[in-house]
Amino acid sequence: MQNNTEPGLVMSASYRHIKVPTSGEKITYVDGKLSMPDQPIVGYVEGDGIGPDITRACLRIWDAAVEKAYGGKRKIHWCEVFLGEKAAGLYDGNYCPDETIEALRDLVVSIKGPLTTPVGGGFRSLNVALRQDLDLYACVRPVRHYAGVPSPLKNPGKVDVVIFRENTEDVYTGIEFKSGSPENEKLAKFLREELKAKFFEGAGLGVKPISAFGTKRLVRKAIQYAIDNGRESVTLVHKGNIMKFTEGAFRNWGYEVAREEFGNVTITEEQLYSEYKGKQPEGKIVIKDRIADIMFQMMLLRPEEFDVLATMNLNGDYLSDAIAAEVGGVGIAPGANIGDGVAVFEATHGTAPKYAGLNKVNPGSLLFSGVMMLEYMGWSEAADLITLVYPEVVSDGIVTYDFARQIDGAKEVSTSAFADALIERMQGGVDLNAKRKAQQEQLIKERKQREIRRLLQPTEEMISTGRVPHTVGDLMTRALITVSEDETIETVMGVMADNSVSSVVVDPNAAGQWGILTRRDIVTKVVQGNKNPATAKVKDLASRPVVSVPAETTIRDAAAMLSAKNFSRLPISQGDRIIGIVTETDLFNAIKKFGWTAE
Ligand code: NAP
């Protein structure tokens, strides 16, 4: 780490205490893109409590990874900026000096340790202040498991998601009115009298603003991340079935931004099934959505189904901590707050004051926030070096106190000794290419397995991955039983009985028209028409042309059509082909399983 007296650091004319290294170059952000020099200046905030211990250790590890990956061609020039207690000491009690905000904006990329939020005295939380002042609207939390790290899950290796949490809206905007206050009473009166709202007397009131602007910029970032990092899907997590005009609107705007701005690289999950039959096309990211409560279940039961999650402030708050707990908890969960042109990476835990200065705690959270930062900078080789050696060191049982108490036979080491072990392992030589290749092969294998499941058991997959059906394509039977028009009725009755179906689809005739033959057709036409089933042909009894609907037809429209036409089944068409069939029983079962919420 450089200190203030080292040559190569100058006090910028505009800064009181911040010394910008003259040896590096500024990172710039132009037209939505980072421009990354080989010798960038990156900001860091040491943090309070355990902050200095973990920051010291991490700076050494990041520098060693960059040196090892690029052989000296690239190097980070660190610029210390001040927040929290260290800032208060330098800036006359000011925990969040203006020049720090200015420097973080100017430096474009920075990383920070945990900060004490002084209680009382009218202080804004420093983290909230940073988010607001720098408009860091996306809180990004990658959560994945590293071999050897203790976890309550049976297969924690399957967890590998990146959560994009909206940082500026939702019930966190602080628009709240205390029960009994004049403001509360005024608002309650307005809601009751003008808008006919009903709620209990004396309720505390809060406002939940969710805008198209706030949603779209967040989802845009999540999709761009998925594109840049070769991810498979982006899931919009919401509770839109209950809060239609806030969380439901988030879902709709999320799909809208995908369609309008990323239409050539995204498909919806509906399309994945209806147009691509569950086989994900190369180069396309699947946009899907899940109800928030189901998402918690899914992250325990089928975490491998999810990749990038985009959600609102409150859902994101709960989800990121819950998912982090699946793979090692706050001690190693990294995070970042990112806006347009400014990114601040940060440890997600607090200052753990009882361990301050003891050189004892786990540097993992800050370390992996730095890994995210290196990836954000496009320096993935250095990032990969750290993620590759980390599980090796932990699996050898070299860990800090928090893991040592959960791993039998582990050797507890200090923060700095853990850093030494990582650096030593990196310098000992890591076959980055072989490891990356093995990881890639594993990824492809898992994708293939998921694809096979989607192809073979679409409805079971829908249920077990938490998908809610929206269209008839989601519910249709694809294993169609078809017969030729020249078959006898007797043969077809045998086919129906053997397969326990009440209808068969009839192959197209010379005019290309598909048909359908139902049990009811047979009963009425054979009996009333005095036909002999052994000699009568399918073409004599089938209904032609068949009335069909496309797979994208909503369940609501399909139900209306069944009722209007007095049908009990609908063949599903794609172009001039019949590709499946959905029956009244399928719709009945879907409503029984998933319920029905008015739209
Ligand atoms: P905390 O500092 O996160 O500590 C809670 C517990 O988490 C610690 O006692 C320790 O558990 C464990 N822990 C945290 N960091 C760890 C690490 N690096 N390695 C191993 N274990 C770790 O939460 P807090 O005590 O609620 O908050 C203390 C202060 O931090 C408050 O001033 C709060 O405002 C601030 N805070 C800041 C941030 C931030 O800057 N991002 C975030 C949260 C809180 P054991 O006791 O079981 O060992």
Task: Please outline what is shown here.
The chain is an alpha/beta fold and 599 residues long. Helices cover 42% and strands 17% of the residues. It has 22 helices and 25 strands.
Report on the structure:
By secondary structure, the chain is α/β, with parallel strands linked by helices. It contains 22 helices and 25 strands. The chain has a domain at 468-594: CBS-domain. The two termini are 58 Å apart. 41% of the residues are buried. Residues 1-5 have low confidence and may be disordered. NADP nicotinamide-adenine-dinucleotide phosphate (NAP) binds next to loops. NADP(+) binds at residues 116, 349-355, 362, 401, 405. The record marks 172, 239 as: Critical for catalysis.
What's the total helix number? Answer: 22
The averaged pLDDT comes out at 90
Mind describing the biggest β-sheet?
Answer: 11 strands, mixed
How widely separated are the two ends? 58 Å
Low-confidence stretches: 1-5
| CATH structural class of the domain at 468-594 | Alpha Beta
Which structural class do you get from the secondary structure elements?
Answer: alpha/beta
Q: Name the CATH superfamily classification of the domain at 468-594.
A: CBS-domain
Helix proportion: 40-55%
- The rough form would be described as elongated
CA-atom Rg in angstroms:
30 Å
| Distinct small-molecule ligands in the complex | NADP nicotinamide-adenine-dinucleotide phosphate
Measured by DSSP, the beta-strand proportion falls in: 15-25%
Second-tier CATH architecture of the domain at 468-594: Roll
Provide the spatial order of strands within the biggest beta sheet. 6-5-7-17-16-8-9-15-12-14-13
CATH topology of the domain at 468-594: CBS-domain
Number of strands: 25
Keywords: CBS domain, Glyoxylate bypass, Magnesium, Manganese, Metal-binding, NADP, Oxidoreductase, Tricarboxylic acid cycle
Modified residues (N6-succinyllysine): 112
Pfam families: CBS, Iso_dh
Subunit structure: Homodimer.
